Amino acid sequence: MINARFGTFRGLVRLALSYPQLALGQSATLRPDPAEVRRLVFVCQGNICRSAFADVVASKAGARTASFGLSTTTGRPAHDPAIAAAQALGHDLSAHKALDRTDYQPQPGDLLLAMEVRQLHRLAADPRLSHLPRQLLGTWTQPIMPHLHDPYGLDDRYMAYCLLRIEQAVTALVRTYPGATPS
User: Fold this and answer.
1) pTM
2) Measuring CA to CA, which residue among 180, 136, 147, 108 is closest to residue 42?
3) At what angle do helices 80-88 and 50-60 cross, to 10 degrees?
4) Sign of the C-alpha dihedral computed for residues 68, 69, 72 and 77 taken in this order
5) pLDDT tens readout for residues 49-82
């Protein structure tokens, strides 16, 4: 049950800790002005599972998107199990190429959407990115799930569950920020 829903016991603990961090304002969230959001930028560790998938889902929904990893190699392909899980949900990750944080070019109207509180803290500490609005993608799920644990190398059931949660969050997110969807 834990491996299928939370990835690992550590994933469950990090999820449990993320709720009070969010509630007490310790998540390093920087809320955007909704009228100024022009592009949804998804962020995770490697940009080969979570953020890559969110990018594909939002792009397919018509949004302007980008994604990058906080610690990755630009050009790296999506993780094979993520490609398979995405395919099962009707999305194609096969052409994805990872982008490292250092190669990401911020644009006016970017909203950074991270998968974990600790990622928001890293974005807030980066002088090049600290001014950009940032939120947790998992706050758009129902129920809220502020920590979307990295599925890389974990149980295939968790990969599928994680990507399904991301798909649900992105669907709500795209509706909330219509400025990110060109007319």
Assistant:
1) 0.96
2) 136
3) 30
4) negative
5) 999 999 999 999 999 999 999 999 999 999 999 9
